[in-house]
Design brief:
The chain has six helices and no strands. With about 190 residues, the chain is mainly alpha-helical. Helix 2 packs across helix 3 and helix 4 runs antiparallel to helix 5.
Length: about 190
């Protein structure tokens, strides 16, 4: 029986666990996204300066250094997110980078430059810029917000967070493939 006026600790504990679990799912999922994107950029590093230059946001002198640093930064940040160590700063940096990517895509879409490749690191399916990709980055950044809370996650729940993160990564890959196919020449022409 619950005494009147006594706070019930169970809902608070469940809420804290949900925040921690959501944060872990996000850090694993986004960590895998960054590692995967870095691997694609490293495999096709000769093309990356051109992709970055196509955005027309950096002075030409900065394109090559950014093209060299970006895959390494994504790889390091992805590994950091996956490690679970110091999750709040890793999540904050990842959310910032995703926000920068979303901003760069949005600027070019507003300029009418949706034909350029997003540079997301997926060579199998070229991804022209599209608003769904902007939203993907915004949603992934928002999913990282619970990781900023530094809520502790018990050991067995960590495994659930890792499994959920893998599912999140696979859903992002599926989303990327659908968006790429929708923008490909093979997509049925829209009547309108």
């Amino acid at each position: 029986m619950i005494a009147l006026g006594a706070p019930d600790a169970a809902p608070a504990a469940i809420g804290l666990m949900a925040v921690a679990l959501t944060g872990r799912i996000a850090t694993v999922g986004v960590g895998l996204v960054f590692v995967s994107a870095a691997a694609g950029k490293l495999r096709h590093r000769a093309l990356l300066p051109g992709v970055i230059a196509n955005y027309r946001l950096l002075p030409p002198a900065l394109v090559a250094p950014v093209a060299s640093a970006l895959p390494v930064a994504e790889l390091v940040l992805g590994a950091w997110l996956l490690s679970g160590l110091l999750a709040p700063p890793a999540a904050a940096l990842a959310a910032l980078l995703l926000g920068i990517f979303a901003w760069a895509m949005a600027v070019n879409l507003r300029r009418g430059r949706g034909h350029i490749d997003c540079g997301c690191g997926h060579a199998a399916l070229r991804q022209p810029l599209a608003w769904p990709l902007v939203m993907r980055n915004v949603v992934l950044a928002a999913l990282l917000l619970p990781a900023l809370a530094m809520a502790p996650l018990p050991g067995q729940a960590w495994l659930l967070g890792a499994a959920g993160g893998i599912v999140l990564f696979l859903l992002v890959q599926l989303f990327n493939a659908i968006v790429a196919l929708a923008g490909s020449p093979l997509a049925p022409a829209r009547k309108g």
